[in-house]
Design brief:
- The protein is mostly beta strands.
- An 8-stranded antiparallel barrel has the order 1-2-3-4-5-8-9-10.
- Strand 2 and strand 3 form a beta hairpin.
- It starts with a helix and ends with a strand.
- About 10% of the residues have low confidence.
Amino acid sequence: MKNLKILIFSSLCLLVASALHGQTMRPPNPGFKNTIGTALSTGAFFDKPAYFFGWSVDYAHVVGEKWILLGGLAYDQEHKTEVKAGEMKVIHTITPNVAVGYAVSRNLAFGFGIGKGMWDTDNSEKKMKFTTSGNLTIGVLASYVILFRGPHGIDVTAGLERGLITPETNGTFELGYGYSF
């Protein structure tokens, strides 16, 4: 029954087909229920000439023994080549996000989440402004903790993200640190 639950959850993650810039789904440090974390991220889009770098902060809470609820705020800087002008366009975005995950083992967790670009510089003044037109993005991610030291943890996360408003897909990689309490 346990393996069936893991299989169903993993299948749902793959069906959603997409991770959120700078978000990690680290498994909980043994003996702790809460984690505050930060991550550096990078990635590339599959359907346009663009790549990004990012940084995030997040809070995760373990429900029961294995389920993870996460909320965070991510900043990313997207670099894309404008086809018409042949020049590089840089857009800064701040995205609040939430995710749900499942710790398959002490070191490995899978999850899916959603984020909405709420502030960006994709405007005529190139200044950070609140926007209602920011992309709504869904994603799947897998996180592996490479080091546990008491309340400290370092993890790597990989994911796939898909925009719902602007249909674009990217792969992402994060290196994260978490402090559990």
